[in-house]
Write a structure and sequence with these properties.
- By secondary structure, the chain is of the alpha+beta class.
- It folds into two domains: 216 residues, no CATH class; 140 residues, Heat Shock Protein 90, CATH 3.30.565.10.
- It is 66% helix and 11% strand.
- The strands form three sheets. It has a five-stranded mixed sheet with strand order 3-4-5-9-8, covered by helices on one side.
- Strand 6 and strand 7 form a beta hairpin.
- Helix 4 runs antiparallel to helix 7.
Length: 429
């Protein structure tokens, strides 16, 4: 019965490890193969446990090794993360098992050295500790964020889990080799539980640090992208200006030839050429070169994606808005609008500017088949990593606040259109 309990315990630990790692990483192997690999690894640990008569140091070492091997073989997780998580899981399950054993020993007035000899007590302790272990692993898995940076921590941070497991092994040895009173058992249980709590807090700190580093990483990339966008738009503006001049001059030459020509066929050909040149003059003539370039860029992009794009930006040209701020607002807003329109059935995007009271209002409307995700009055990204994605809206908010502005949105279920309205306090006197 004792051997059965040991095998059952290791099998449960395999299921918990599978649940944990499946929540934080993608599977490399099919589920049946993962279960087969896990069963072989963990039951081999049970076999060695039985042969070596529950040697504490071996259990701690082998449990960590089989977790590392299991996670590396079956899941797409970095090796360093597999090692880190496996050590933490070892500490958590050891601490919880120790606390469960001591509490059962105190409640039942049973000597802790006789715990392993009693099948009912062994199963009771396993059920309690593994249940707590399962819930702890599931909760901790929710904190884990996929890291995009090679975040590095001081060596002390990695040494702490090792010191914690050594401390737990010493406590376990003291309890199994010496007859301790209930008071001392409670004190040692408290120490073990404190280690458990500290490891959980370390785990959460570790994941929050990763999340912070990820956000910083994405923000740096976003700033670099914004700088590149500014340079791109500046170059595009110069190219468009040169093209407009060339188109204007060419059109004048063709008109001169047209006036001198008497052949009707040549006249028809020249008229077609002049008509074709009109599209190169400029797509947009708002009076703000940067605004014109941005609009022209998205006109071209929407044509390539078969999206019907329309604009009306002649009432206000937003000249007082800095070029980088204008790029931030319009690029982020239009990128989101086009992404949504691409997934819709109608595929339309429009932008318009207006002057209302003391505010200049930018209105962007796009087709949207499904209502946006919201949290209160705030929009919520539907992408997997919410801590990283959704920064485009935050960038827009940061900019319009600089201009004492506001941002509102609405969704029309009937027309299936999403409307974003950005208002900026007009600085035109």
């Amino acid at each position: 019965m004792y051997n059965f309990a040991i095998c059952f315990t290791y099998f449960i630990e395999m299921l918990i490890s599978y649940s944990f790692f499946s929540l934080i990483g993608e599977k490399k192997l099919k589920v049946p193969i993962c279960f087969f690999v896990g069963t072989v690894l963990f039951l081999s640990g049970a076999l060695f446990d039985i042969i070596l008569s529950n040697t504490l140091w071996f259990n701690a070492l082998y449990f960590t090794i089989i977790n590392i091997a299991f996670s590396i073989l079956c899941f797409s997780i970095k090796v360093t993360r597999c090692i880190f998580y496996s050590i933490l899981l070892n500490i958590i399950q050891t601490a919880l098992e120790f606390v469960a054993i001591n509490l059962i020993s105190i409640v039942t007035n049973t000597d802790i050295t006789a715990y392993n000899k009693s099948f009912p007590l062994l199963m009771l302790g396993a059920i309690i500790s593994k249940t707590l272990y399962l819930f702890t692993c599931i909760i901790l898995a929710r904190f884990i964020k996929k890291e995009k940076t090679n975040i590095k921590f001081p060596i002390v941070l990695y040494m702490y889990p090792v010191l914690a497991i050594i401390t737990l092994l010493i406590i376990l040895y003291m309890c199994t080799q010496f007859e301790l009173s209930n008071i001392y058992q409670l004190i040692l249980s408290g120490v073990a539980f404190a280690i458990f709590i500290s490891i959980v807090l370390l785990f959460i700190f570790y994941q929050k640090s990763i999340e912070k580093e990820n956000i910083i990483f994405v923000l740096k990339n976003q700033i670099e992208k914004q700088d590149m966008d500014i340079n791109y738009y500046n170059i595009l503006e110069k190219q468009n200006e040169d093209l407009r001049i060339y188109a204007h001059d060419t059109k004048n030459h063709l008109n001169a030839i047209h006036n001198l020509n008497t052949n009707p066929e040549i006249d028809e050909y020249l008229n077609k050429m002049i008509s074709n040149l009109k599209c190169y003059s400029s797509v947009c003539h708002s009076g703000n070169h940067m605004l014109d370039v941005i609009i022209s860029k998205y006109v071209t992009e929407c044509k390539m994606k078969n999206i019907n794009f329309s604009f009306d930006v002649y009432i206000t040209n937003l000249k007082y808005v800095k070029n980088n701020d204008l790029v931030t607002i319009l690029s982020n807003a239009l990128d989101n609008a086009i992404e949504s329109a691409e997934q819709s059935s109608i595929k339309t995007v429009s932008i318009a500017t207006d002057h209302i009271n003391t505010y200049d209002v930018i209105t962007i409307v796009n087709s949207c088949d499904n209502p946006p995700e919201t949290k209160g009055n705030d929009l919520v990204t539907t992408k997997k990593d919410s801590s990283i994605h959704g920064l485009g809206i935050k960038s827009i908010q940061k900019v319009f606040k600089q201009y004492n502005g506001d941002c509102q949105w609405e969704y029309d279920k009937n027309s299936r259109e999403f409307t974003l309205m950005i208002s900026l306090l007009s600085q035109i006197k």
